[in-house]
Design goal:
Strand content: 5-15%
Strand order of the largest sheet: 4-3-5-6
Order of helices and strands: HEEEHEHEHEHHEHEHEHEHH
Largest sheet: 4 strands, parallel
Distance between the termini: 105 Å
Structural class: alpha/beta
Helix content: 40-55%
Radius of gyration: 28 Å
Number of helices: 11
Length: 316
């Protein structure tokens, strides 16, 4: 009996040691997993900067509504963990955690979300917080398209970056096809050899705000949009992307069409245009401000709308 008791005690001790050994082994394995290097790769953003990012990107933050729309269009909406308070499209963007507005993102909120990459829309945002994010191991990727083709190129790069598959490729093909249908009708696409006579390019003034009077300059992607729609921006050579115009400068422009970026404070043309052909002939049009201001996939919607407004005879 005593011998049996001793054997029983020995079995219990051995069993306990085996359990402890197994637990220690699992803990060691877990520690090894957490310290295992994450596969990385180098990509280039729109400023041709080399960015080190994880091979598999799972968490991203957007600091602009246009970037948010692009990420969703590229099939990466499920990886967005933070967006700005202005990010209202698509509908799913409204329920994602907010990191402040575009010009004043909250750095603590961004870092707390632990993103792999933070996407920004302009180079001007870089200096403000790149250093802080890099110190926390977070890459900053700049998207700064200046034309429709740049937007399509950025969308393709996003699809590759997020490894989002065929769905996004089909969307990209569809957007290209819609653009080409407008270009083919007007013979206005610089990237395609299209037949037919080129339409008369109608002088267009794009009014971003009424007071003060802001418009688009040579750095804006909207010049390209107006051109493909069969128009010519009368301010396409003015310095900067969104210049403020004096009344004297605006008076000399004499546009045949005025396009208003529709907002509560931009419902009608500035008083300086009261004698312009655009106002006299009732050719003042309003386009949704979000479509006009965001260099993203919905810009093709704006292209189609503007083309029909400038050349209704081509769509009868």
């Amino acid at each position: 009996m005593k011998k049996w008791k001793n054997e029983k005690v020995l079995l219990i001790v051995l069993g306990t040691l085996m359990v402890l050994s197994s637990a220690c082994h699992r803990r060691a394995a877990n520690v090894a997993d957490t310290t295992k290097p994450i596969p990385m790769r180098i990509v280039r953003d729109d400023l041709d900067r080399e960015i080190l990012v994880p091979t598999k990107i799972t968490r991203v933050v957007s600091t602009a509504p246009s970037v948010t729309e692009m990420i969703f269009a590229a099939g990466g909406g499920d990886r967005l963990v933070g967006v700005t308070t202005f990010c209202n499209y698509p509908e799913e963007a409204k329920s994602i955690a907010k990191i402040g507005d575009t010009m004043n993102p909250n750095m603590e909120s961004i870092v707390a979300l632990k993103p792999d990459v933070v996407f920004v829309s302009t180079a001007s945002q870089i200096e403000a917080f790149t250093k802080t994010l890099q110190q926390n191991g977070i890459a900053v990727y700049v998207m700064d398209p200046t034309s429709l083709e740049d937007i399509f190129f950025d969308l393709k790069k996003l699809c590759d970056l997020l490894d989002s598959g065929d769905t996004s490729k089909r969307l990209l093909d569809e957007l290209h096809e819609r653009e080409l249908r407008v270009c083919d009708r007007f013979a206005t696409c610089s990237f395609a050899d299209v037949g037919g006579p080129r339409v008369r390019m109608i002088p267009v003034f794009v009014q971003i705000s009424k007071e003060p009077l802001f418009t688009i300059g040579r750095g804006s992607f909207l010049n390209d949009l107006i051109s493909e729609a069969g128009g010519r921006s009368v301010t396409e050579t003015v310095a900067t992307s969104y210049p403020k115009l004096s009344k004297e400068t605006a008076l000399a422009l004499n546009p045949e069409v005025i396009i208003l970026s529709a907002s509560d404070d931009n419902r009608e043309p500035n008083e300086v245009f009261r004698n312009s052909p655009a106002v006299k002939n009732g050719r003042v049009y309003r386009i949704d401000a979000d479509l006009m201001s965001r260099p993203g996939p919905r810009l093709v919607d704006a292209l189609e709308q503007i083309a029909k407004l400038l050349h209704p005879e081509k769509f009868k």
